[in-house]
Amino acid sequence: MLPDYEIVLGRGIGGILFGMPKRELADILGPPDEIEYSEEAERSVQETYYYNSVKCSFSFDPDYGDRLVEIMVENGYFHVGKKIRVGLRKEDLLNSGAEVKFGEFVLEDLGTELFTTHELLSFKKAGLHLWIENGLISAIQISPLSDEQGVILWPEEAGGDI
Q1: pTM, rounded to two decimals
Q2: What gap in Å lies between CA 41 and CA 34, rounded to an integer?
Q3: ∠ at Cα 27 (22, 29), nearest 5°?
Q4: Could you tell me how many helices (H) and strands (E) the chain has, helices first?
Q5: What phi and psi values does residue 96 have, to the nearest 5 degrees?
Q6: Does some domain include residue 82?
Q7: Residue 7's closest CA among 162, 154, 124?
Q8: Which of 6, 42, 107, 146 sees the fewest Cβ atoms within 10 Å?
Q9: 104 has pLDDT over 70
């Protein structure tokens, strides 16, 4: 039987929870295959741990005590509610009534000369961002929930799924 991993919005995946430190992730998954350091203007250097065998990455932000603030999945074994997963057609998602469950969404055309069909569909209230390439979900990106003022609600504060 193939593995099946539930993505829980506002919480994480299985025992990997938003807000956990890097060492706890490494205790669960082992050392990362690669670590990337990125610096945005006026922000601290963020670290992203890549695990190629499961096609997932995990980002830690020093502005939040080097806690886990983003998970990106490019593997069809991971899903949101057994329906949203890598490989799902954008039309099927839009016809599923996802906006009723996850709130309003924004669809951005991020096409470039190299990636002409690149889009991002974001359910910001749910912390769910779906990367779309050639009409199919190519990656699922999730982040912690936040309150009306933009303050992050860590899983123990948010109570889990929307």
Answers
A1: 0.89
A2: 23
A3: 90
A4: 4, 15
A5: -85, -10
A6: yes
A7: 162
A8: 42
A9: yes
